[in-house]
Write a structure and sequence with these properties.
- This protein has five helices and seven strands; from the N terminus they run H-E-E-E-E-H-E-H-H-H-E-E.
- The protein is an alpha+beta fold and 159 residues long.
- It has one domain.
- The protein is globular and about 45 Å long.
Length: 159
């Protein structure tokens, strides 16, 4: 059950996401033609086709998006995502207990689920119609930042 305060905060968050973009020297940009959205990470804002969303208060989400944008094809495996989220490599995580790894995995799923629903709302008129944010490809066992409708799950990821 959501409290009126949480509801008001959520509405304020979505209302205040419009912003203008500035060219920053430390920005990460990528974008291709043929219907793919142009995504970038500029300082503390994630940008999709000109719409900027402030993610400064979400450092884990910021690290995760940065990792997605920096990889070719915007694809990460679970180990890369865990490393982006918490700074521990997959080798370091192997010595941990099953309970710890289960909690990390659950946190990962929660974060991605939340980002997926936020992006669906925030970029609904800025991204191509039918885009799936944070798509999991079961065949390749990788997460994609996005998947376009009609596009095969295993698009060319590695050049």
């Amino acid at each position: 059950m959501t409290s009126p305060q949480n509801s008001t905060q959520s509405q304020a968050f979505y209302r205040n996401q419009e912003s203008t973009l500035s060219e920053e020297p430390n920005s990460i940009k990528t974008g291709v033609s043929d219907g793919h959205p142009k995504v970038a990470l500029e300082n503390r804002k994630f940008v999709c086709n000109g719409k900027a969303v402030d993610i400064g208060r979400k450092p884990t989400a910021s690290r995760l998006l940065k990792a997605f944008i920096q990889t070719h094809g915007h694809a990460l495996n679970k180990g890369q995502i865990m490393e982006a989220m918490g700074g521990e490599s997959l080798m370091e995580l192997q010595g941990r207990s099953k309970r710890f790894l289960s909690c990390k995995s659950q946190s990962l799923n929660r974060l991605i689920s939340r980002l997926r629903s936020d992006f669906r709302i925030l970029f609904r008129s800025y991204a191509p119609e039918g885009i799936q944010w944070f798509y999991y490809d079961q065949v390749e066992s990788i997460w994609l930042l996005y998947k376009l409708p009609g596009e095969g799950a295993n698009r060319k990821l590695y050049a």
